[in-house]
Write a structure and sequence with these properties.
The complex is a heterodimer of chains A (272) and B (275). Chain A is an all-alpha fold and 272 residues long. Chain A has 14 helices and no strands. Chain B is an alpha/beta fold. Classes of the chains: A mainly alpha (272), B alpha/beta (275).
Chain lengths: 272, 275
C-alpha cells in the first residue's frame, strides 16, 4: 500500500519519461497510421469481396480448430510441467525448453521444420503418402498444424501458471474423500484453473489467427485452402494496398476485441 | 477438563462400542445417511517412519474408536506430516498404518477411508457448501444422488441455510463445520484433524471447541488431532502424544502428563496460558 502510494507520487527522472514516451510511440503510432490511412468509405465493399470472405472463413475455421487441439493437448502438457517441479533439474529444464523453443523460434523456421517432418519426402510424410495416400503440406490441415505448433506454448504456459498458483491442498483434500487421480483432475484441478485455461485459449486463438511465417512455409498460399487473412493481407499489399489495409484493420479489430475480453478478468495486474 | 475414556453419550452408548448389536449400515449406505458413529468402528494402529525435510519422524501408537488422541508438539516437530502420512498424502520411509485388520499404508489416499480436516479447512473454493459436502458421493454417482446423500449431513452440521454459499462467504466456524461435514460424509473409518481451531478467532474458539467435541464424539471412530493447545487437547481428546523433533517424548492422559512433564517443552507448553 505504502509502496504503491510512494510510486504514484514519486517523480520519475525526465530522461526515463522521455524514453518511455518514445517506446509508447513505437507501439502505438503504426496502429494509429493504419486506422488513419484506412479506406473507410470503401471498407464495406472491400471486406465483402469473395477473396476476403474466403480468407476470413478459412482463418476463423482453422484458428478455432487449432485452439481446440491446443486445449486437448496443452492442458495435460501444462499439468505435466507443473508436476515436473519435483523432477531432477535436467529433465525438468529440457521439458520446459521444448515448450519454450517454438515461442522464441522464427515461425518460418517452424514451417521448414514441419516440412522436414511431414513433407512428402520426409520420413513420416512419405509413409503417410505411400500407406494412406495422404499428403499434409499445402493443405488446410497443414495450416492447422502450423498454427498449433506456434500457438500451443501460449496455452501451456497460461495453464501452467494457473496450476502453480492454485492451492495443491485442495487436490489432497479431494483424494482423502475418495477421488481418484482422474477425478481430482476433472472435478478439482480443472475447474480451479478454468480462468487460466480461458485466458490461454484466447491467447492461443489470437496467435493462431495471426500466424503467417510457419503457415506460408508449410502450407503455402492457395486461395480458399491455405490463404489465411495474414497471408491474404501480405499478398494484397503487392496488388491492392487498400484491400491489404482493410484486412489488416480486420485483424486489428479482432485483437482489440480479444484484449477487451481478457481485460482485468484474466490478465493479472490489469485493472478496469 | 478431559473427556474420560469410556464416556457415554446421551443414550448411554459408548461411541464405537464393539459390544453393541451388529449394525447393518455400511459405509456409504444411502439408507442410513447422516448416521455416523452408529456402526462398529475399527481402531487405528500406526508404526511408521518418514522424512520431512531434514527431520526424520518415527512414531508408534494405537488409537481406539471413541477415544481421540491429540498430538502436541512445537512447530516443525512433524505433527502435520504424521497426519498426512496416515492419510496417504506423503510416502512412508518404513513401517505400517492399519485400520482394524486392514493394512492401508500401500493404498492410495482415496482408498484408505481416512477423513481429514485440514488446518484452514481447504474447502473447494469453486463449489457451494452443498457440493463440497456432496463431493465424496459425487465421486461415486450422479450429482442429484450425491446432493440427496449430502442433505442429512447439511442438516446435522447446521449448514442447510448456508448450503448454496461458496466457502469464501462463510465465517471460520462455518467453514470448520463444512469441512467436517465434507470429511464425515465420505464415511471414513478414521478422522484426522490438523490444527482444527487455529484458523478461528480467539473469541469463538471456546464455543467452537465444545461444538467440535460433540461432533468428534458423534463420529465415534478413531480420531487423531494435531494441536498446539493443551486446552484443545483437554476438551477434544482422551489422551495426548507429545512429538518433538520427530520423536515421541511423552504419551498419556493430559492429567498424567501435567503431573510429570517429561521434557522442558512439555513444561513450557503446560505453563503457557492457552487462549
Amino acid at each position: 500500500m505504502a509502496r504503491a502510494a510512494a510510486r504514484s507520487t514519486g517523480r520519475l527522472a525526465w530522461p526515463i519519461t522521455a524514453i518511455a514516451v518514445v517506446a509508447l510511440a513505437v507501439l502505438v503510432l503504426p496502429l494509429v497510421a493504419l486506422v488513419v490511412r484506412a479506406p473507410w468509405a470503401e471498407l464495406p465493399e472491400l471486406l465483402a469481396s469473395s477473396a476476403v470472405l474466403e480468407a476470413l472463413v478459412l482463418s476463423f475455421t482453422t484458428a478455432v480448430l487449432a485452439t481446440a487441439i491446443c486445449l486437448v493437448l496443452g492442458i495435460p502438457l501444462a499439468a505435466l510441467i507443473a508436476h515436473a517441479e519435483s523432477w531432477p533439474a535436467i529433465p525438468r529444464r529440457l521439458l520446459r525448453a521444448a515448450v519454450t523453443v517454438p515461442l522464441v523460434l522464427p515461425p518460418v523456421v517452424g514451417g521448414i521444420a514441419l516440412l522436414m517432418l511431414l513433407g512428402r519426402r520426409s520420413l513420416i510424410g512419405q509413409w503417410l503418402d505411400e500407406t494412406f495416400g495422404v499428403t499434409i503440406p499445402f493443405t488446410t490441415g497443414a495450416v492447422v498444424i502450423a498454427q498449433v505448433f506456434v500457438a500451443l506454448p501460449f496455452l501451456v504456459f497460461a495453464v501452467e501458471g494457473a496450476l502453480r498458483s492454485s492451492d495443491r491442498r485442495t487436490e489432497l483434500a479431494a483424494a482423502t474423500i475418495g477421488a481418484s487421480r482422474w477425478q481430482v483432475f476433472r472435478h478439482v484441478t480443472l475447474p480451479l484453473v478454468a480462468p487460466g485455461v480461458a485466458a490461454g485459449g484466447v491467447l492461443c486463438f489470437t496467435r493462431a489467427l495471426g500466424e503467417f511465417g510457419a503457415t506460408i512455409t508449410f502450407a503455402g498460399s492457395l486461395p480458399g485452402t491455405t490463404r489465411t487473412l495474414p497471408i491474404a493481407s501480405y499478398l494484397a499489399m503487392q496488388t491492392d494496398p487498400d484491400e491489404a489495409v482493410a484486412l489488416a484493420l480486420l485483424l486489428l479489430a479482432v485483437s482489440v476485441v480479444v484484449l477487451l475480453t481478457l481485460r482485468d478478468r484474466w490478465l493479472p495486474g490489469a485493472t478496469a | 477438563m478431559s473427556v474420560e475414556p469410556g464416556s457415554t453419550d446421551a443414550a448411554g452408548r459408548r461411541p464405537g462400542d464393539p459390544s453393541r448389536p451388529g449394525d447393518p449400515s455400511r459405509p456409504g449406505d444411502p439408507s442410513r445417511p447422516g448416521d455416523p458413529g452408529r456402526r462398529d468402528r475399527p481402531g487405528l494402529r500406526v508404526d511408521l517412519a518418514l522424512s520431512y525435510g531434514a527431520t526424520r519422524i518415527a512414531a508408534a501408537f494405537d488409537v481406539q474408536p471413541g477415544h481421540p488422541l491429540a498430538i502436541i508438539g512445537p512447530n516443525g516437530a512433524g505433527k502435520s506430516s504424521l497426519l498426512a502420512a496416515i492419510a496417504g498424502l506423503v510416502p512412508l520411509d518404513a513401517g505400517e498404518v492399519s485400520i482394524g485388520s486392514r493394512r492401508v499404508d500401500a493404498l492410495p489416499s482415496e482408498r484408505r477411508r481416512v477423513g481429514m480436516v485440514f488446518q484452514d479447512y481447504v474447502l473447494f473454493p469453486h463449489l457451494t457448501v452443498r457440493d463440497n459436502v456432496a463431493f465424496a458421493a459425487r465421486m461415486r454417482g450422479s450429482r442429484a444422488s450425491a446432493r440427496a446423500v449430502a442433505q442429512p449431513w447439511l442438516e446435522r452440521y447446521d449448514l442447510v441455510t448456508l448450503a448454496d454459499r461458496l466457502p469464501s462467504e462463510l465465517s471460520g466456524g462455518q467453514r470448520q463445520r463444512a469441512a467436517l461435514a465434507r470429511a464425515l460424509a465420505a464415511e471414513p473409518d478414521v478422522l484426522l484433524l490438523d490444527e482444527p481451531m487455529s484458523a478461528l478467532d480467539v473469541e469463538v474458539r471456546a464455543e467452537m471447541r465444545d461444538e467440535l467435541a460433540t461432533h468428534v464424539r458423534d463420529f465415534g471412530g478413531a480420531t487423531v488431532l494435531v494441536t498446539h493447545s493443551p486446552a484443545d487437547a483437554a476438551r477434544l481428546a482422551d489422551s495426548v502424544l507429545v512429538l518433538e523433533g520427530g520423536r515421541v517424548t511423552q504419551r498419556g492422559t493430559l492429567d498424567a502428563i501435567r503431573a510429570d512433564p517429561a521434557t522442558p517443552y512439555v513444561r513450557r507448553m503446560l505453563a503457557a496460558s492457552d487462549d
